[in-house]
Design goal:
mainly alpha, Arc Repressor Mutant, subunit A, flat
Length: 183
């Protein structure tokens, strides 16, 4: 377990802000009486993803501002629709995970009905376990897919030197390709 930070949240916020404005880590480490390594770790784990996302937002806003007003309205409407889809998919994932959990519980109850000495005498219970387990696994797929997509996106934000997602189309294209290759 890492040692508690010598700086409070407000101090870290100030350090991150000043680094993003170009101040040196060494100078800030001296000023706050922490190691340069501690600041570097904080920057790598907290500030880099924030800066990468801020750059993406700024790029998107500049690209949007270059469009005609009517096209900007269409872009905003599409973005709102995509957010709505994300909210609904998240809800579906949550419900699917809950369903998966309940089906797994039911499968576990059926497992307890199997005669261990003569399992073939418990054929109905084994069929129930198999069917419930299969349905449980199927119910969890939306949640698992969203977790994997989120993990991939967080990795990209954490490693901005790697290929960045250039647009929302790139993001959905990558994940639809991944989905089609797994099915």
């Amino acid at each position: 377990m890492p040692a508690p930070s010598k700086l409070n949240d407000k101090q870290w916020w100030d350090v991150e802000k000043r680094i993003s404005e170009g101040e040196s880590m060494r100078a800030l480490a001296k000023e706050y009486k922490v190691t340069e390594g501690a600041i570097r770790h904080r920057v790598n784990t907290h500030l880099k993803p924030i800066l990468a996302l801020a750059k993406q937002l700024a790029d998107a806003e500049l690209a949007k501002e270059a469009l005609s007003i009517i096209t900007q309205v269409k872009v905003r409407s599409l973005a709102d629709e995509l957010k709505s889809i994300s909210v609904h998919l998240t809800g579906a994932a949550r419900l699917g995970a809950m369903t998966s959990h309940k089906l797994a519980e039911l499968a576990n109850i059926q497992v307890n009905l199997i005669d261990e000495e003569n399992p073939m005498a418990s054929e109905d219970a084994m069929k129930s376990v198999s069917a419930l387990s299969r349905m449980s696994n199927d119910s969890s797929q939306i949640a698992i897919s969203l977790i994997n997509a989120n993990k991939d996106q967080m990795n990209k934000l954490s490693n901005p030197d790697e290929k960045e997602v250039k647009s929302i189309n790139d993001f959905y294209a990558e994940h639809s390709n991944a989905q089609s290759s797994t099915t």
